[in-house]
Amino acid sequence: MRTPVIAGNWKMYKTLAESVDFVRELAPRLAPFTNVERVVCPTFVALAAVGAELKRTDHTDIHVGAQSVHWEAQGAFTSQISPTMLQGIAEYVIIGHSECRAYLGETDEQVNKKVKAALKHGLKPIVAVGESLQQNEAGETATFVGGQVRAALVDVSADEMANVIIAYEPIWAIGTGRSADGATANNIIGGTIRATLAELYGSDVAQSVRIQYGGSVKPDNMAEYMSQPDIDGALVGGASLKVNDFVALVEIAAREKGTQGA
Ligand code: PEP
After folding, report:
1. In the annotation, is 109 catalytic?
2. Which residues, in sequence order, are CB contacts of 34 under 8 Å at separation 6+?
3. The ligand 1 atom nearest the CA atom of 97
4. What is the pLDDT of residues 46-91, one digit of tens each?
5. Ligand 1 pocket, 129 CB below 6 A?
6. Nearest-CA residue for atom 1 of ligand 1
7. Which one of the listed residues 37, 106, 169, 251 is annotated catalytic?
8. pTM of the full predicted structure?
9. What CATH number has the domain bearing residue 73?
10. Domain span holding position 92
């Protein structure tokens, strides 16, 4: 049984003070839904303070994730944050988000290096993959997304896959208000991503890895995704910036597919 996981990607929103205020309001409202894993991913500068606030208020079952990481433990990489710097302040890290791929030039090879570095240093990667509108319309989704999954996981072992989450996020659905319908998303997640994992690691691992959907997930379309058998939660941008929406998403996930003891 895969525990559903809802992760809020706050992108470059919320100052340090706003992040702490937000999580102070959010955490007690997410607390009842222990059958869903709940993750908040603030900006780097707010990570430690958000984690401290969760600890102070005894909400340590809300997990903290970073939005990226460098692959080196240290070095002359101005502006970058290393996996050792995240140890102790983040448990998860989003890697390969389409905004990093598009605006920061993150390549499949770098994504793979980041995934391996994160795992080596005890961080759990949320690996984002997804096709462009052009690729989607050309019927290339399965080939492209399958290729991204393979590239991200080069030299990642079957045992390490226990700590990896994959997020299927069609680029054309991120922040646009357009979203893939539930059955289509489930088809890519089950028929392409899980099938690729089965080829790489065998069916037991493929069945155990959690795969999220992401792309304009909102309270009013959440049930459509959570009712799908292969979708194990959501990576959420815009709607995770509002307390009521974040709570509603987790509540729907708990109702549709929560397991015990996340
Ligand atoms: C995201 O940032 O990963 C995302 C899916 O954003 P949104 O929910 O706003 O589409």
Report:
1. no
2. 61, 260, 261, 262
3. 3
4. 999 999 999 999 999 999 999 999 999 999 999 999 999 999 999 9
5. no
6. 237
7. 169
8. 0.97
9. 3.20.20.70
10. 5-256
